[in-house]
Design brief:
With 125 residues, the protein is an all-alpha fold. It has five helices and no strands. The protein is globular, with a radius of gyration of 19 Å.
Amino acid sequence: MSLRRPSATLWLAALAAAAATSALAQPATPPADFAVCTACHEVKPGGVSLGPTLFGVAGRKAGTVADYDYSPAMKAWGMSWTPENLAAFILDPAKTVPGNKMDYSGAADAATAKAIADYLATLKP
């Protein structure tokens, strides 16, 4: 019986596909300032605690996570979470969505808000 070895091209293609899949499954390392968010938010699919899950938040329409009771203001806002409005909301939630119920006064500065928003963009399937 003869065993055939896969060609080097097939082997490298399989290795590259496995590496790409592995890279997609691993979100970026959160910035240190993200720790405050985890007091109320999960970062896994379907996780709801005091706040809605942040998994998949980038691109999602605000106020739409099932099983979470959003404020009327957040439901009415009607925007999807872009990198820009995520950063604006993290910097100043009360200004971005007046009447929201998140008990967080905002990030210390725009750079911190952007770093958190950039991290949130990695939390996706």
